[in-house]
Amino acid sequence: MQKVTLIPGDGIGPEIAESLKEIFAAAKVPIQFDQVEAGQAILDQTGSLVPDNVYQKIEENKIAIKGPITTPIGQGFRSINVSLRKKYDLYANVRPVKSIPGLTTRYQDIDLVIFRENTEGLYIGEEHYETDDHNSAVAIKRITKQGSERIVKSAFEHAKKHGQTKVTVVHKANILKLTDGLFLETAREVATSYPNITMEELIVDNMCLQLVTHPERFQVIVTMNLYGDILSDLCAGLVGGLGIAPGANLGDDLAIFEAVHGSAPDIAGQDKANPLALIYSGINMLDYMGLSDYARQIENAVLKTVSQPEHRTADLGGQLATSAFTQKVINYL
Ligand code: NAI
Q1: Which residue out of 242, 320, 322 has the highest number of ligand 1 atoms within 8 Å of its CB and is therefore the one to mutate?
Q2: Is residue 162 part of a domain?
Q3: In this structure, is residue 42 part of a structural domain?
Q4: How far does residue 130's CA lie from ligand 1's centre (Å)?
Q5: Is there a single domain that holds both residue 137 and residue 195?
Q6: Cα 167 to Cα 164: distance, rounded to the nearest angstrom
Q7: Which numbered atom of ligand 1 lies nearest the CA of 273?
Q8: What does pTM read for this prediction?
Q9: Least confident of 20-24, 41-45, 155-159, 199-203
């Protein structure tokens, strides 16, 4: 049986990870979770947010699924999520955004996926003060041809594999002529290898407008790190919120699946969190592993559950606790 590293994380992480484990067990998914701890609780015990055994297990099993991890503010900590992506060169942050049938939001029929470059841009952490009085600060945005090429290629390959006809490249090259200009130029070059797929170019501010007016017209979106981060929260809001938004961090030989949301300290430990985002991340992980029969079985059970308003958690307008929602999904399985 294939092993998958499970990192529950902190905040609502342990509650939603429990839900994932119970649902996978009920569906008899042929994987074994290799669980390791990271986050605030383990920091208090060991002085390290991510102990060495977490890295060992990620490297050993090559596939991991993780809950959110709180980044302590103002104590010199770098985000664990950003560090993991960098360390393992997980350059593609893939975030599918899909309307859930029966779940009424302002929009219907949204089915798009965001490919966010995950290792470059403004997230490289190179910032400094320009003056001794600290009244002027600078952040460096790094864009490389190689980094741009591989993320755009991933987006086009995804479109090709799923029979989609359009890839939208999001940029601000009218202002950031060198960095975003390089990304856009590289995208244009990559696109020439995919004659059956149209490449659409949109400036990021216009993209925001288009997404809140006509989101159903997008299929595959590819963009740089910061724009991708912001657009994916915006898109999560279009289909029902952070509680249902899954994600994956993919490299060439290692993958970490995780929900888009954070550790939600305001509801942690209260059995209120929606576990769907992590469950959908798990479903996408099963597809990635070639276990699509199990993925569809769980997805169908989830859809049957959520289609009934009384079978939803509070963030989706329902009243179910995390544990009760989990039981409903298991009943459908
Ligand atoms: P957040 O995503 O944790 O919460 C934003 C809002 O959405 C809160 O009102 C929260 O209750 C709600 N929410 C989030 N997930 C939910 C769920 N599954 N069910 C129901 N409601 C949900 O964002 P915030 O507050 O900005 O970040 C909190 C902490 O999480 C920070 O320390 C941040 O660094 C960390 N974080 C970690 C991430 C990760 O590990 N991948 C990603 C984003 C943030």
Answers
A1: 242
A2: yes
A3: yes
A4: 33
A5: yes
A6: 8
A7: 19
A8: 0.93
A9: 41-45
